[in-house]
Specification:
By secondary structure, the chain is mainly alpha-helical. It is built from 13 helices and no strands. It folds into two domains: 87 residues, no CATH class; 169 residues, no CATH class. α6 packs parallel to α8. The longest helix has 21 residues.
Length: 288
């Protein structure tokens, strides 16, 4: 069984990661306090309640963006640094900028004035995004949040899920995040029975861990043993991808990614974030 070099990872994070990811690491793996994570997340908050300032590393926009807000909520959730005031402010901002049907757009137009990865392009007519709406709503449901934005976002997700037939991989991340935590468990299971297999029919996952290029591992769809999508994958497939993930640690102690590195700053930020994420995934799956 392949295991990571934990000391090398710790050194990489200390040398290269953002303060936020250093605080995540301290909280998750060194018994650190929750408050420094909360404060680090809050540094990316805008006066409108949303989050920006390259919290999502490929969006160097200082203005509030759904993707950055999704990441802020996820980080507070995973580290137990949940802050009700920050969450309410984020939900109020989401409600004030929501598309007509509710939810959150993929990316807000302010991105065009700032450096950003080429795939962050505002969509015509400002539709709700399966990715952002599903990921944010899933986190909020996991925490039992009550807010008008979440009510409308949940309705929007159910409506979209009734129609979805050809999701992309990132759409599926939003779908699974939503189905993992939405309170109506019977409906979630029924929808998953139909939508989950689209991971295979739409060729969204690479079952061979050595597949080159910008591909998606089963661990991205089902990172934990209790993930709703874990039942789609045989145990030997999961174990092979865990071996590959542990073995993907680089000589400098960190992990990297398989998509376009369009900016040195974004690359550095992503590597710190993903190194903490890799350690989380390996630990929750019993690899150390």
């Amino acid at each position: 069984m392949t295991v990571p070099d934990f000391e090398a990872a710790a050194t990489f994070i200390a040398e290269n990661a953002r303060v936020l990811d250093q605080r995540r690491y301290e909280r998750l793996f060194q018994g650190g306090d929750a408050e420094p994570v909360r404060d680090a997340v809050a540094a990316y908050r805008n006066s409108d309640g949303g989050f920006g300032h390259a919290l999502e590393p490929d969006l160097r926009d200082p203005a509030s963006q759904p993707a950055a807000t999704a990441m802020a909520l996820r980080m507070m959730d995973e580290t137990g640094s949940w802050d009700d005031d920050l969450v309410k402010g984020a939900c109020d901002w989401l409600e004030s900028t929501a598309p007509g049907e509710g939810g959150a757009a993929m990316v807000n137009p302010s991105v065009t004035a700032w450096p950003h990865a080429p795939w962050w392009v505002p969509e015509d007519k400002y539709p709700a995004s399966l990715i952002q709406t599903g990921m944010i709503a899933g986190t909020l449901h996991a925490r039992g949040v009550r807010h008008p934005w979440l009510d409308r976002a949940t309705q929007a997700m159910w409506a979209r899920l009734d129609e979805v037939t050809t999701p992309g991989a990132y759409d599926m991340f939003g779908i699974l995040g939503f189905l993992q935590h939405v309170p109506d468990r019977d409906r979630a299971r029924k929808v998953f029975e139909r939508v989950g297999p689209l991971i295979f029919s739409q060729d969204l996952v690479a079952l061979d861990p050595e597949t080159p290029g910008e591909v998606h591992s089963p661990l991205e769809f089902a990172p934990a043993p209790d993930s709703i999508a874990r039942a789609l994958f045989d145990k030997p497939v999961i174990e092979a991808h865990l071996d590959h993930l542990a073995g993907a640690q680089r000589d400098d102690g960190g992990w990297t990614f398989n998509w376009l590195a369009w900016s040195p700053a974004a690359e550095r930020d992503w590597r710190g974030f993903l190194t903490v994420d890799a350690l989380r995934t390996l630990r929750v799956n019993g690899r150390w």
